[in-house]
Amino acid sequence: MTIQYLINTPISTNQFIDILCRSTLGERRPIDDHECMEGMVNNSNLLVTAWDGDKLVGVARSMTDFHYACYLSDLAVDRDYQRQGIGKQLQILTRQQLGKHCKLILIAAPAANAYYQQLGYAAIPRCWVLDAGQALEPS
Q1: What is the Cβ-side half-sphere exposure of residue 25, based on CA atoms within 13 angstroms?
Q2: What's the rounded Cα separation, in Å, for the pair 91 and 60?
Q3: Which residue segment(s) compose the domain that 61 sits in?
Q4: Fewer Cβ within 10 Å of end Cβ, the chain: N or C?
Q5: What is the predicted pLDDT for the residue at 135?
Q6: Is 101 a member of any domain?
Q7: Mean pLDDT of successive 10-residue segments in the chain (139 residues)?
Q8: What is the helix (H) or strand (E) element at residue 46, kind and residue range?
Q9: How far is CA 61 from the centre of its chain?
Q10: How many folded domains does the chain comprise?
Q11: What is the pLDDT at residue 54?
């Protein structure tokens, strides 16, 4: 099996939903909201994909300014292809697209904490989330 990696090759919303479902990430994404998923795909500005022939087997979807911060929003690898280094290679290729001062930032599922730690990520407990529909409190 030879995996081919591509940078910013467009994928369809259905392909994106499918790879999320074939990974563990589909459980934590709004895969039943096609409009939202379409927006996620269309408004990303860095997409690294892994292909086994014409089958999408992995994706790293990011939003970045390429110079200071890159938010790796989705890292998904088909369950049948996990533990083969595909996720790590997707991150390496993502990192290679960024400037020398750019930080790679992600929010990990609790079960993935050990994975990211072994790759060299630092856990930083300063993340804050304002849920959709929640109003900012006046000061």
Answers
A1: 22
A2: 7
A3: 4-119
A4: C
A5: 84
A6: yes
A7: 94 97 89 95 97 97 96 95 95 96 88 84 84 81
A8: strand 46-52
A9: 4
A10: 1
A11: 94
* DSSP-derived 3-state class of residue 136: coil
**Which tokens go with 22?**
């074939």
- Pull the structure tokens for residue 61: 């979807």
| Tokens coding 82 | 């996990």
Return d(Cα 106, Cα 89) in angstroms, integer: 16
CATH of the domain at 38: 3.40.630.30
Q: How many residues does the chain have?
A: 139
Give residue for tokens 């369809």.
Answer: 12
Alpha-carbon gap, residue 49 to 6, rounded angstroms: 5
Whether residue 135 lies inside any domain: the answer is: no
Return the bridge partners of 4, or none. Answer: 51
Q: Are 78 and 90 in contact (CB under 8 A)?
A: no
Cα 36 from Cα 34, distance rounded (Å): 5
CB of 46 closer than 8 Å to CB of 63: yes
